[in-house]
Amino acid sequence: MRRRWSFYMDILPVIVIIGNECIVMGLLTLFKAATLEGMNNHVFVAYAYAVCTFVLLPVTLFTRRSRVVLTPLSFSIICKSLLLGAIGSASQILDYIGVNYSSPTLSSAIGNLVPAFTFILAVTFRMEKLAIKSRSSNAKVMGSIISIAGAFVLTFYKGQSILNSSSLHQPIKFFKSVDSSWAIAGILLIVDKFLVSLWYILQVHILKEFPDELSLVLLYSISATIISTFVALLSVPNASAWKIRLNLSLICIVSTVSYTTNYCNYLAKI
């Protein structure tokens, strides 16, 4: 019985990670389908953050009232939360623009850069020590190099169609994308994943000073809502683009917000 329980506990994190990746891929695919029907990515990001803030606000206020000891909110934390919101919203915008130019598959593949970039930034900011004689450090370095190299190959070489028989007689040209939009998307997604890693590092730094996860998530969501709405208003002044109808656009927004809020609440409880 104990062995069976131990086996379940060992395999559970793998199942959760795979499930999370499947959900993210499903949301990106849904977003791609919604944009093909005319939804603007800037408007989508603004609406998603706004609805997420609307959902998190009462939850955070209720939990803070029920606490005996509250973490004080300083001006420094507010400024850092604004920076966190700027990085997060910029990352989201770049991610969805990249998916628009390419496909959810490329975004998911380049997502493997996040651990590599996070490790490099953690070493740079002295959050993690790099021991040359340590197997763990060497494995992280090798993994980072392989991830970065693989991302650049995916960016500059889209590949030829498998079902096209004429492509078998053509020479393979590495680092030459079939479609220039694919390379542009790859570069945008690489920058996006770097911002995600920077977002993680800054979040860890803030939580050391302000160990209130749910309140920090709310502050981040408010900051990202303000910034993404401002960017969307400048980019999409047409009022008709802001109309959300009962179609894939609404389903995409509700699905993304549901996943984000549940994920944030789960992280806040850890």
Q: Which value, in Å, is the CA radius of gyration?
A: 21 Å
In quaternary terms, these chains amount to single chain
Largest sheet: none
Whole-number count of domains: 2
Separation, N- and C-terminal Cα atoms = 27 Å
How would you describe this protein?
With 270 residues, the chain is mainly alpha-helical. The chain has 2 domains: 40-67 and 211-270, no CATH class; 93-158 and 170-209, no CATH class. Helix content is 75%, strand content 0%. It has helices at residues 2-36, 41-65, 75-101, 104-110, 113-124, 135-156, 180-209, 213-235, 248-269. Helix 1 (2-36) runs antiparallel to helix 9 and helix 3 packs across helix 8. The two termini are 27 Å apart. Mean pLDDT is 77; it is low at 160-178 and 265-270.
Please describe the topology of this protein.
Layout: H1 2-36, H2 41-65, H3 75-101, H4 104-110, H5 113-124, H6 135-156, H7 180-209, H8 213-235, H9 248-269
Helix pairs in contact: 1-9, 2-8, 2-9, 3-7, 3-8, 5-6, 5-7, 6-7
Give a brief rundown of this model.
This protein is mostly helical and about 270 residues long. It has helices at about 1-35, 40-65, 75-100, 105-110, 115-125, 135-155, 180-210, 215-235, 250-270. Mean pLDDT is about 75; it is low at about 160-180 and about 265-270.
Which terms would index this structure?
single chain; 270 residues; 75% helix; transmembrane; WAT1-related; EamA_dom
